[in-house]
Specification:
heterodimer, A: alpha/beta, seven-stranded mixed beta sheet, 14 strands, globular, B: alpha+beta, six-stranded antiparallel beta sheet, four-stranded antiparallel beta sheet, 13 helices, elongated
């Protein structure tokens, strides 16, 4: 079992003829993902490694039964690509694009409301279900099938954590990078809800960072609704206020969004919080063995 | 991106938001001329990006053009220190000279994107407690802040302005003026991809006029690509020189006060690496994210930037190779260190794709690196070197 990405998922890659899109489409196929189509307006009728390319997402849905999409298009076109997927009825939309203006994401989220579609990202490494497939650019070799769910706002730090778990013999149900922007399609809470309902997931590893209030909202959800144990880490304990730490969303503003506040909120909600990210694997092992 | 008050006021003017009469100057003589033209009591305001200018002595009133010239002589060229500039302060090059006004009431008006799940849209905030920092008002007397969410998909509706204006205790003729200002400010926020606009204080004069006494606009960096006219307003003198150099090189760098330099791929891992250095008993000298597609060239650029901070006594390179292969990173590090004659002690930790090949390259090179495998081990090793 898994969340969002499963055996039924048939993936269309928007921007498949670009450098990033074609590279990651190949990597995804190598990982076992069912990539059934690509979309690049104007390149319809061609193919990439035998994967048919269409002009419109709706054509990929009608002809190939696509029900999940991965978006690798430049920031100026990405909001439109997301809206096209929503309109075509795609239920899992994963957008890797970095640099989308926050106000565009505000509009996209209004359009998403009530459609039942999940948007992961933007500015994220994507989603991987070991043994099934992946959308995005998490490296193939780090994953292992198992019973831990992973949710994170960052990229390489997520790979570290997944790799650490795998090296300790702990596999994952699904790993999701929700993205580092101020407004993201799916929040920690959205993913926690799914992991709580997934019978194969026994524990959730959650990695937050400074800025915003997604961690505090997650803490409230964990306290009220989660029965499964969690381990967590918050990056940015040493980050100075007022500076954007790479991710557009990682900024302490007006004294709000500090790592200390978030760690306290998580701890109070019953999440096993580690100060040292190198210990998140060990913390997971000790809970799973208890 | 931040801009100066006088630049923000020009944009306000374009949007029909009333501002006091005034002009910018760079010499005391110009200040005198402007004061003469205004023909009444004036305020001379230092133009730097930081807040708290008044308390730092960067804002002064003058009763005559002569006095304006005199106070301008004190402000222009001064090193203005405020709670936001850091102890080194900012040198004042430009001042804004404006008519002084009779104050009836000082209000606050601002717009920002609220990231809370039940909003996730621009929120207009107003308060009767103008002139104070809104964060302070929010934490001490949150009931004094009126908030109205605004969906950028639809258009601005009159009730949104009235909700705020009546909430601020305004009466009939002023309510109309306030609603117009709120609507204009919201239009500006959306059309220019702002991340924050603030009028603090929004002044109500004794004759019932509303004016923006101060003006602050921050822009969403991700929106700048579609606003070349805003990009032009960037004042690079206001930025930390090393951070400016880094942004020109396409590297994410933020200078900190410690002595352990670090170079990492990915923002989350870069923050976690700083945390690990601290946890191991050291102090990070910087945040540095070389990005996902780091090449030998970008690694060299990153090294040059982080080593131009003279406080750096040792370096930690922490790379998780995914798509980016560790052997490529290792040869980049070796090439850069050799080209630069880098003599600082260094710990290199590689994890991920082709890690064995990468470690072998490092060990076989003539350069002295300590190689670490674990995350925390790397931090402990580098801290031991300073």
């Amino acid at each position: 079992m898994s969340i969002l990405l499963n055996e039924e998922s048939r993936i269309v890659i928007q921007g498949i003829t670009g450098g990033e899109g074609s590279f990651h489409a190949r990597e995804a196929v190598e990982f076992g993902s069912k990539v059934v189509a690509g979309v690049t307006p104007g390149k319809g009728g061609t193919d990439v490694d035998g994967i048919p390319v269409y002009n419109r997402v709706i054509d990929a849905v009608v002809n190939e039964g696509a029900n999940a999409s991965g978006i690798y298009v430049p920031a100026a076109f990405a909001p439109d690509a997301i809206l096209e997927s929503i309109e075509a009825g795609i239920k899992l939309i994963v957008c890797m694009t970095e640099g989308i203006p926050a106000l565009e994401m505000v509009r996209v989220k209004k359009a998403l409301k009530g459609t039942g579609s999940y948007l992961i990202g933007p500015n994220c490494p994507g989603i991987t279900t070991p043994g099934v497939g992946k959308i995005g650019f998490m490296p193939n070799f780090i994953h292992k099938e198992g019973n831990v769910g992973v949710i994170s706002r960052s990229g390489t730090l997520t790979y570290e954590v997944i790799n650490m778990l795998t090296n300790l013999g702990i596999g994952q149900t699904t790993s999701v990078g929700i993205g580092g922007d101020p407004i993201v399609g799916s929040t920690f809470v959205d993913m926690l809800e799914l992991f709580e309902a997934d019978p194969a997931t026994d524990l959730v590893a959650i990695i937050g960072e400074i800025g915003g209030n997604a961690e505090e909202e997650a803490a409230r959800f964990v306290e009220e609704k989660m029965t499964k144990p969690l381990v967590g880490f918050i990056a940015g304990q040493t980050a100075p206020p007022g500076k954007r730490m790479g991710h557009a969303g990682a900024i302490i503003s007006g004294g709000k969004g500090t790592a200390a506040e978030k760690m306290k909120a998580w701890g109070d909600a019953g999440i096993k919080v580690v100060e040292n990210p190198a210990e998140i694997g060990k913390a997971a092992v000790s809970i799973l063995n208890s | 991106m931040k801009i100066h008050e006088y630049q923000a006021k020009k944009i306000f003017k374009d949007y029909g938001i009333p501002i006091p009469e005034g002009d910018v100057a760079t010499t005391p003589e110009e200040v005198r001329n402007i004061a003469e033209r205004i023909g009444k009591r004036v305020v001379v305001k230092a133009q730097i990006h930081a807040g708290g200018r008044g308390k730092g002595g960067g804002v002064k009133t003058a009763d005559s053009p002569e006095e304006a010239e005199k106070v301008a002589g004190e402000i222009i060229g001064m090193n203005l220190v405020t709670h936001q500039t850091g102890p080194e302060g900012k040198k004042v090059k430009t001042v804004l000279v404006e008519e002084a006004l009779d104050i009836e009431k000082e209000l606050y008006l601002g717009i920002a994107i609220d990231r809370a799940a039940d909003q996730e849209q621009p929120v207009i905030m107003a308060s009767e407690a103008g002139g104070m920092e809104i964060e302070e008002v929010a934490s001490k007397t949150p009931e004094k802040i009126i908030k109205v969410g605004a969906n950028p998909v639809g258009s601005f509706s009159g009730f949104q302005g009235r909700k705020i204006a009546y909430g601020l205790g305004m009466n009939k003729p002023v309510v109309g003026k306030a609603s117009k200002i709120i609507e204009s400010l919201y239009r500006l926020f959306v059309e220019k991809d702002a991340s924050l606009v603030e009028i603090n204080p929004l002044l109500l004069t004794k004759d019932g006029e509303l004016l923006a006494l101060d003006a602050k606009i921050n822009f969403d960096d991700d929106g700048l690509y579609r606003h070349p006219e805003i990009k032009e307003l960037r004042d690079v003198d206001e930025e930390e020189p090393l951070e400016l150099k880094a942004s020109n090189a396409g590297v994410n760098y933020i200078k900190l006060d410690g002595n352990v330099g670090c170079m990492v791929n990915g923002a989350g891992l870069a923050m976690a690496t700083m945390d690990l250095i601290k946890l191991a008993g050291g102090e990070p000298a910087n945040f540095l994210d070389v990005g996902g597609g780091a090449s030998a060239e970008s690694i060299e650029k990153a090294f040059r930037i982080l080593t131009s901070d003279k406080n750096v006594k040792a370096i930690l390179v922490n790379i998780f190779g995914g798509i980016l292969r560790c052997d490529r990173v290792a040869s980049g590090v070796i090439e850069a260190a050799t080209n630069m004659n880098l003599t600082l002690p260094m710990v290199v930790r590689l994890q991920g794709t082709n890690v064995e090949e990468g470690r072998k390259l490092l060990q076989e090179s003539s350069l002295k690196f300590e190689v670490a495998e674990g995350l925390f081990e790397a931090a402990e090793k580098v801290v031991a070197l300073v």
